[in-house]
Amino acid sequence: MVEGLRAFGLVAWMWIRSSLTYRTSFVISTLANVAITFLDFVAVLLMFSHIETLGGFGLPEMALLYGSASLALGAADLLLGNMERVGTRIRDGSLDVLLVRPVSVFAQVAADRFELRRMGRVLQAVAVLAWALPRVDVDWSFGAVALLVVTLVSGAVIFGAIFTLGAAFQFWAQDATQVLNAFTYGGNTLLRYPPTIFGRELVRGVTFVVPLAFVNWLPVLRLVGQDDPLGLPGWVDFLSPLVACALCGLGALAWRSAVRSYRSTGS
Questions:
Q1: How far, in whole angstroms, is CA 141 from its chain's centroid?
Q2: Can you tell me the distance from the alpha carbon of 206 to that of 215, in angstroms, rounded to the nearest whole number?
Q3: Cα(first)–Cα(last) distance of the chain, in Å?
Q4: Cα angle for residues 87, 157, 74 (degrees, 5° grid)
Q5: 171, CA 20 to 30 Å: which among 65, 78, 105, 264?
Q6: Which pLDDT score is estimated for 265?
Q7: What is the pTM of this model?
């Protein structure tokens, strides 16, 4: 694992140095990334200029949901987002080049074309959280702060595991990037809004089938003192780390099985 992390760091640093060669272009693309992602939150602000609450959530609570979901996805997207390109590498045969190198294939695929400009989504999410946290009606005791920190870390790990599962699936499907995006970027959009505005079947699906609800929904409902629409026991709100670990294990097994089943293109 240490060798894998070292390989990831070296490959990522190579691409960072490459992107910093043209510093002006890098700064402009990063600022553009921040501006584009910020427009999503502008839509929320415009919506709350006409309404007081949405699904029992005021603007600060909505900002807490928005920031926590965006920060979790942003961190996972920064580190593992390029794994969605594994389908392209399989189709054009370039994955064979990675397999013959004495380095972890996972680390090479994850760090391939590392894009530091994706920090824009992380910075925007941090800014929204910094605005929301002092305004949301939460007693910030040690337990509440710990729950928020654990939630943010677990959410990033859950999205990272979904990136890995999606990449493993492409070894068989070969062109399933949009399927992966539906669970990552689509899931992020879903988690920005209160679960109370969605149908119970959808909430059950993202709780028990694809456990996106553990990214931020259930812990944030606990923090702001609202009941979850499924009436689950209170201890379920603290299961995000266990769900993240379980998904990581599943992702690791799926990735290993996918690589072992891969047959070279003969290129």
A1: 27
A2: 10
A3: 29
A4: 75
A5: 78
A6: 65
A7: 0.89
pLDDT higher at 176 or 140: 140
Q: What tokens does 32 get? A: 């553009």
Q: Are 147 and 133 in contact (CB under 8 A)?
A: no
**Residue 241, Cβ neighbours under 10 Å: how many?**
15
Task: Give the whole-angstrom CA distance, residue 177 versus residue 159.
Answer: 15
Cα distance between residue 206 and residue 82, in whole Å: 24
Q: 103: buried, middle or exposed (CB in 10 Å: 19+, 13-18, 0-12)?
A: middle
> Cα angle vertex 125, ends 123, 131, to 5°?
105
**Cα separation of 194 and 217, whole Å?**
7
Give the pLDDT confidence of 220-267 residue by residue, as tens digits.
Answer: 999 988 888 888 888 998 999 999 999 999 999 999 999 888 877 665
167 touches 112 (CB < 8 A): no
Average pLDDT, the chain: 87
**Using CA atoms, how far apart are residues 266 and 100, in angstroms rounded to an integer?**
13
Phi, psi of 54 (to 5 degrees): -135, 115
pLDDT at 108: 86
Distance CA(219)–CA(234), nearest Å, equals 10
Stated length of the chain: 267
Question: In this predicted model, what pLDDT tens digit does every residue of 3-55 receive, in sequence order?
Answer: 778 888 888 888 888 878 888 887 888 788 777 778 888 888 899 988 888 88
Closest CA to 192 of 84, 80, 59, 75: 59
CB atoms within 10 A of CB 232: 15
